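Help needed: design a sequence for this.
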């Protein structure tokens, strides 16, 4: 009996192990294998969906309408996902939702300003292996992915005025690094300014400012080469630079693009580009020796820039009339010559024939009777009302308030011999350019986001924070009807960090 009992015990153990193998161990092993397979399927599907979203976002071609972009993105997403997770992969069905389609959505997020989002959702039916024992033939694996894309058109605006002397190598190096971070498909342009401003890239016919392509995709090598040529010199014609940058963005606009201006400056505006003898009007003194006091034809038109010669003091030197680089330089070597030469000559003959300023730029006051009411681009030199204070807007400026500058002097355009008055007019024309850019941009669906780097070299001529914030639409100057940029203060050794901060903002907007 004991031996027979032992045999039955062994048989019982075998039966128990068999039952456990069938009911516990095999299902556990099968579950482990099936779970591992489902995990691998999930990873494969997620990779296909994420890649499809990125590919679709990249396919959002510049210049198309949103409807065209959406159709192209959906097609690209479907092709990418199906190519990377083909029907029958490990026995699974093709990625589909319950309604039989891959769900791809393309939407525009206007709240974050011209951002196009691509989202994908997919499910596959994965055949199970061991879990069929328990009656489970298939399991559903789902994945979703999203990506964003924005067409970028950006004009980089660099200040080369004399106060940048000693810091140009730092600016050149970091401006080039900034440009390198943009990829083919983005569109960039370059404006450089001193006393006057120049559209350096893409070059265009100076006799036709509306000609040219505006920012383009072939920017990298030309812009890097041109930035290397920049040498410091002369004044700060900020309004012309800002307006030219906006005019470049107006050329061949992209319907879904994010338009941007990134301006670097180290000073206060102190120069104005204008017409001084227009058809039916003149701002040339009757006592001036200029032959062409009155306009008698295009060749006699006196167009140029006037500026300060001795800071913002109430009395001192004022200078002009200087030739506009943007109107007198054509391209290629001419642009490079201007970039590498700090000197900016007076207006050439015949327009300036016999004028006092031709022999001595400090004699501009003997020829010019008043600061024109608008600059060459229609921006007003007259003060506007600040809606926050109800007073003249220029009264918030450092130029007006500083005891060593205007020290509370009222704006008087007839005082062309006053550096203070040239400074106030220059501030006013920048302020008006900002307002006109916003109004025109809103009317034409082309509002640029403006980023400003203000560089303080310690000389006391640091940028006017209030004006810079107006330009960037931030701080107390913020207007919710327009996109906000950013104002970044910088100093020696900090230009790289400032450009990096701008780049992080750009990437936040486009990704």
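Sure. Designed sequence:
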């Amino acid at each position: 009996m004991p031996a027979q009992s032992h045999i039955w015990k062994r048989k019982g153990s075998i039966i128990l192990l068999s039952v456990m193998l069938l009911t516990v161990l095999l299902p556990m092993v099968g579950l482990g294998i099936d779970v591992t397979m489902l995990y691998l399927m999930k990873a494969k599907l997620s990779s296909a969906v994420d890649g499809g979203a990125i590919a679709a976002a990249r396919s959002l071609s510049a210049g198309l309408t949103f409807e065209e972009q959406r159709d192209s993105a959906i097609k690209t997403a479907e092709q990418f996902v199906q190519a990377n997770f083909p029907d029958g992969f490990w026995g699974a069905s093709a990625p589909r939702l319950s309604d039989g389609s891959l769900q791809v959505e393309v939407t525009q997020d206007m709240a974050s300003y011209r951002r196009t989002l691509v989202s994908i959702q997919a499910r596959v039916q994965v055949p199970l292996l061991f879990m069929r024992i328990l009656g489970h033939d298939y399991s559903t694996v789902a994945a979703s992915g999203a990506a964003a894309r924005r067409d970028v058109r950006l004009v980089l605006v660099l200040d080369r005025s004399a106060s940048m002397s000693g810091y140009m190598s730092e600016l050149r190096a970091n401006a080039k690094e900034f440009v390198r971070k943009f990829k083919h498909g983005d569109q960039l342009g370059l404006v450089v300014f001193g006393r006057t401003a120049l559209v350096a890239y893409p070059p265009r016919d100076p006799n036709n400012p509306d000609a040219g392509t505006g920012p383009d995709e072939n920017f990298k090598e030309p812009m890097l080469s041109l930035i290397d040529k920049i040498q410091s010199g002369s004044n700060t014609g900020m309004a012309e630079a800002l307006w030219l940058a906006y005019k470049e963005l107006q050329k061949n606009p992209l319907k879904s693009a994010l338009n941007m201006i990134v301006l670097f400056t180290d000073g206060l505006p102190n120069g104005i580009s204008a017409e001084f003898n227009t058809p039916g009007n003149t701002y040339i003194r009757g006592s001036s020796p200029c032959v062409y006091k009155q306009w008698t034809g295009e060749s006699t038109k006196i167009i140029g820039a006037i500026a300060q010669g001795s800071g913002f003091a109430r009395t001192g030197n004022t200078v002009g009339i200087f030739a506009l680089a943007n109107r007198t330089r054509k391209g290629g070597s001419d642009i490079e010559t201007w970039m590498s030469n700090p000197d900016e000559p007076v207006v050439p003959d015949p327009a300036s024939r016999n004028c006092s300023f031709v022999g001595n730029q400090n004699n501009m006051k003997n020829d010019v009777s008043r600061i024109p009411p608008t600059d060459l681009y229609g921006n007003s030199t007259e003060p506007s009302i600040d809606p926050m204070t109800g007073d003249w807007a220029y009264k918030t400026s450092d130029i007006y308030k500083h005891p060593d500058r205007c020290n509370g002097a009222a704006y008087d355009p007839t005082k062309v011999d006053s550096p203070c008055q040239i400074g106030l007019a220059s501030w006013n024309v920048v302020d008006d350019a900002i307002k006109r850019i916003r109004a025109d941009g809103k009317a034409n669906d082309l509002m640029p986001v403006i980023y400003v780097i203000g560089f303080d070299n310690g000389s006391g001529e640091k940028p006017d924070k209030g004006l810079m914030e107006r330009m960037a639409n931030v701080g107390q100057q913020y207007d919710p009807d327009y996109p906000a940029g950013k104002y970044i203060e910088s100093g020696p050794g900090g230009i790289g960090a400032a450009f990096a901060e701008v780049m992080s903002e750009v990437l936040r907007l486009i990704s």
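The radius of gyration is 33 Å.
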